[in-house]
Amino acid sequence: MAFTTLIDAATLASHLDDPSYLIVDCRHTLADFSAGRRMYDEAHLPGAFFADVEHDLSGPKTGANGRHPLPDPQAFAAYLRALGAGPTTQIVAYDAGADMFAARLWFLCRWIGHEAVAVLDGGIGAWTAAGLPVTASPSAPRSPGTLQAAPHGDLVVDASYVLAHLGDGSTTIVDARGADRFAGQNETIDPVAGHIPGARNRPFKANFGDDLRFKPADELRAGFSAFGSPTSVIHQCGSGVSAAANLLAMELAGLSGARVYAGSWSEWIADPSRPVETGAPTNN
Catalytic residue positions? Predict the structure, then answer.
């Protein structure tokens, strides 16, 4: 069977030697772009390959397309092929747990049409807590795969779409940033503080329990149901990364059909003609 949302540590451990599985380490920190690679070099899951969020999981920046633009879909497919991915490969992404970077790879795989992709629930923390092995040894290269990109254009929207539908009641913008940044307070990453007018706030960290795993589906469903029909929801964040964690949480909750504004806040504010709002959220 294919895993399309989450996979647990025990199940993944039983497939460590399975050539149909591809494991990708997505650990990263926005405060230090080299930290993920250092963590990988120190210890990673056996057989895992490293994904650089700034390069492998993002496209070139133009100054107007945000901090983590979508990569070219063909280039992203080529990256996965170089790791050995084929059309039926089960891809598993992991990060530190209760984070957004594995969800970014999950989202990108879904966007290019590869459904057999899952996030390791609880990340490497859940793996080591279960007494499972890690290694500092480089993973042996695989033969190139044959995966091809067939992008789902209906999974993403652009700034012009968001702007055209502001206030018309047809969409609900859900911002995955923390409540303070949403309100325009303590902004240390982007040059303009605030949020897209009319947006609602659902910090992506609200999807996780204290064990760094996703909360049960019924709890997630209760939180996201407040935003109305799933097909009206457009997720965004600072740069399109943590929005993917909210999209994944909705899938876990059985609320399919939401989309992502990939450029998100960092792209939105690159054009000063686009409206900005500040103030605390009215929802949790």
Answer: 237
